[in-house]
Write a structure and sequence with these properties.
By secondary structure, the protein is of the alpha/beta class. The protein is built from 7 helices and 9 strands, in the order E-E-E-H-E-H-E-H-E-H-E-E-H-H-E-H.
Amino acid sequence: MSIKSISGLILAGGEGRRMSGQDKGLICLAGKPLVEYAIDCLAPLVDDLAISCNRNQGLYARYQLPCISDLDVHTESGFSGPMAGLLAGLKQAKHDWLLVLPCDTPLMTQAIMAQLITGITESDEIKNTQAIVFFHNGLQPLHGLYHKSMLPIFERCLAENKNALHRLLRSHEGVTALTVDCLEHSFNNANDADELTIIEQLLLN
């Protein structure tokens, strides 16, 4: 499988509750917005790339990438979680496979994400595989490669208000968990100000 047959999606549509409601993709780390780390990581691996963002689309538009919202699939809070972002991303993707990366793991690298592409290419059960996600201290469903055949599954789950992505992927037989070869801190998540400080120290060392 080549990059010419893969679309990409950066997930930046969350509420940022532990960041006092800030839009995490636009928070700066070492003088650079988090979303830019994700763009730099994912863009070389895909044919087309979009950003899932539910606010500040004018600011994200400066990256000259399609900005898509999942607010048409909403809960009372206005945010339906990453499953809604995946659904919106799969709907607009040019290709059957969608490589997904969240905006808040800036230590993630292109080489690590490429393991997902290698994993699906080398899989003996590719015809039956609908998604391949990393396994690192548990499933990492926001670092994954999803096929468009997951669309009706996500639609049904969201219609039934079952938007727990981990629960779905653990029970769905079309999902492959790939044990990742990476540094221990590669999946460090900028969930709050303290974790952001730790990541910045790792980044600069």
